[in-house]
Amino acid sequence: MARGVIYWIFAVCVLMGGLLVAIMLAESVPNAGGVAHSLFPGMQAGEDGAARLEFIGGYAFLFQSLLLILIVALSILGVSERHRSKEFLVYMAASLAFMLFIWWQMYSNHQAFLETGETGYFMGFPIATAWQMYGTWLGAIPLILVYVLGFNKYIYTRDDAEAFDKLLREFKQTEEHD
Amino acid sequence: MEAFRQEIIVGAVVLYMLFCVATGLWAMKRTHDSSDFFIAGRGLGPIVVALALFSSTLSGFGFVGGPGLVYSIGVSSFWMVVISSTGYAIGFFLVAKRIRMIAELRDCLSLPDVVAARYGSEAVRFLIAITIVLGVMGYLATQILAMAVVMQAILSGTETFANIGLVTCVIISSAVLIFYCVTGGIIASVYTDVVQGAIMMVAGTLILITAMNVFDGGMQEATSIILRDDSEAIMPFGAAGIMASLGWFFVFGLGLAGQPHLITKMMMNKKMEDNRSILPMSLIGYVMAALLWISIGIVMRAAVIDGVIDPLSVPDDAASIFLSVFANPLLAGVVFAGLFAAIMSTSDAFLNIGTAAIIHDIPKAIRGHSVKHELFWARIVTVLLAVVAASFALYSHFRDATLVALLGAFGWGTFAASIFPVVAVGLNWRGATVPGAITAITAALAINFVVQLAGLALPYGISGPLVAFLTSMILFIGVSLVTRKPDLPEDINRLMDI
User: Fold this and answer.
1) Torsions phi, psi of B464, nearest 5?
2) Distance between alpha carbon A167 and the CA centroid of its chain, in Å?
3) Looking at the 3D structure of chain B, how many domains does it have?
4) Which among A69, A149, B304, B471 has the fewest CB atoms less than 10 Å away?
5) Domain span at residue B75?
């Protein structure tokens, strides 16, 4: 993973493309992308949620899971190969696990609501939506913490700063010389 | 106070516009050359960059279209907002460090400059510059029109300006925008962004408090009303469905690192180390301002369903009707000033990168050098660009909406699909090649154009930009893997090790 991250990114993108094709070819339902609200013009309604997920629910779940993997893989790509230590990769794996957990909670709570018609509330929103609303926002916080707290360790170390200053001096000298 | 509601709102907007003009005059004294005009001489502090970054992210669309989208499709549109933490994280991991380093190493003034340095290709520079110019025209035209429509709505509520026309409003609002952009360039733009960002944060927070008091049971009562009417609308994927929602997560989340008006700002900070504080500050600012998007939309949908207010004639009226029915006049004044701030902060960023593309990058790509007297021509082209965009906006409004709609295809999604792979991935992967970059940009533009022109509706609410983005990522990496590994210039090769 530390070295071949671009191949992971490529593989994930191809898999996501395949899932997108599968979803496009799946049997459609009339309310798949919403329908006009029967009473209020300008409003859309989703209507039967279970029907909307019947043919594509599994594909969509996988699609988002792959997208979360892609996000973490891209973040790893953004860190110089020299700084992709075991410790860094463990942090990134933990961030991915946290994001996948939030996604699973959101999806499974929505499924539970579709089966029972019952939901609790958390901070003003139905549980599944609260996982989306607060959870998704918080999901990337571990990545941000790795960036902010690990800035001098993974993103731009003292050695990096010295190497860049040296490069800058040499390049400007060459330019002046030319 | 209620009797003076309209006067208070007009007063707040006029104050705000006077501030923009004063900032333009102040910044003119600090603008000595084209480097000052386009990238503020790479001398900005972290707070300025952070506020400029988030305020340019949230355009007038966020203040007007956002609440309208929640009213229309429910929670689906939340996905455009809640991805902000992911979007900023990806943007900083992939772009912030490398774009800043290349900009300093090669004295780059624009994103196409950075791309040309990375790939050593004028063709890639040209394609990125053309994409930016087309996108800028579409974005600017819609932003100027939105600004004029809001101004007309505010002024026509007063006795003195009851019959003010849309053309007059386009002229007034464009004149203020042009004035501070021409006189002070990006310096005026980012310093107005600081105040614009602060106004947006205050507006977002106060609106959330107001919205939570509309129903006795607070936000939970509002969401319960929506749930009883149509549960899917308030469930995680909203009325538009799961694939529309996840598509927005992809395009708006990853796509943030492909927006030229945002990542150009990552070239402007004084010190590399500032990035570690810019990231959290930008995110906090965005979250506070975006509270307006979510809270107004939810409350307005619930209020209409519950019969508290009449159904809206168009969803985009959600914010203005909320302000007139539920908000204190002083708060309405702050929010309307915030709305102008949101529109102007995005517009000035686009004017700046569009001007750079026209006078700096396209001539460089074709003739090998940019125009002489860049600062002079930058000011002239800024005026021309704004005038052409304003004309497009008026033509679209009165005669034919197709033109701006077509240019609108070059919005966030097209920038994301065509620029993200080439810049965000390409700056971090030595194996990225010129054929890969050209194929990705061309495919992204073609798919977005075809979907827009043909009005294609894909199954399950899958969006054209999602297909374009994924295709361009696959093509960029795939073509780069099968084409000859490039011989990078020595300095770029060493820089990519850092």
Assistant:
1) -55, -45
2) 35
3) 1
4) A149
5) 2-398
Helix-helix angle B329-356:B122-155, to 10 degrees = 150
The stretch B131-146 carries a mean pLDDT of 83
Q: Residue written as tokens 């686009």?
A: B350
Phi then psi for residue B429, to 5 deg, are -135, 115
pLDDT band at B410 (very low <50, low <70, confident <90, very high): low
B498 found inside a domain: no
Which residue from B361, B440, B401, B339 is spatially nearest to B110, judged by alpha carbons? B361
DSSP state of B33: S
B148 found inside a domain: yes
Please tell me the distance from the alpha carbon of residue B37 to that of residue B99, in angstroms, as a whole number.
Answer: 18
Q: Residue B333: pLDDT band by 50, 70, 90 thresholds?
A: confident
Q: Is residue B123 within 8 Å of residue B371, measured between CB atoms?
A: no
DSSP code per residue over A121-159: EETTEEHHHHIIIIIHHHHTHHHHHHHHHTIIIIIS-HH
Query: Mind listing the pLDDT tens digit for each residue in B149-188?
Result: 788 878 887 888 888 888 898 888 888 888 877 887 777 7
Minimal Cβ distance to A40: which of B92, B93, B304: B304
Does the residue B440 lie in any domain?
no
Tell me, yes or no, whether B368 lies in a domain. Answer: yes
Nearest to A126 among B234, B458, B460 (CB): B234
- The C-alpha atoms of residue B197 and residue B185 are separated, in whole angstroms, by 18
**Torsion angle, CA of A125/A127/A132/A133, rounded to 10 degrees?**
30
State the nearest Cα–Cα gap between A19 and chain B, in angstroms. Answer: 11
pLDDT tens column, B374-390:
888 888 988 998 898 88
Which amino acid belongs to residue B211? Answer: A
- Burial status of residue B305 (CB atoms within 10 A of its CB: 0-12, 13-18, 19 or more): buried
Mean pLDDT over B23-28 rounds to 81
Q: Which of B405, B345, B339, B364 is nearest to B188 (CA)?
A: B345
CATH classification of the domain holding B307: 1.20.1730.10
Helix crossing, B166-212 with B5-28: angle to 10°?
110
Q: Is A160 on the interface with B (CB under 8 A)?
A: yes
Q: Could you say which of B90, B236, B246 has the minimum Cβ distance to residue A74?
A: B90
Sorted by where each begins, the domain ranges of chain A are 5-177
Q: What is the mean pLDDT of residues B27-32?
A: 79
B238 CB neighbours in chain A (<8 A) are 34, 46
Alpha carbon separation from B240 to A40, A100, A113, B245, B297 (Å, rounded): 16, 23, 18, 7, 15
- Best to test chain B binding among A44, A102, A113, A156 (most B CBs inside 10 Å): A44
The DSSP code sequence of B440-466 is HHHHHHHHHHHHHHHT---GGG--HHH
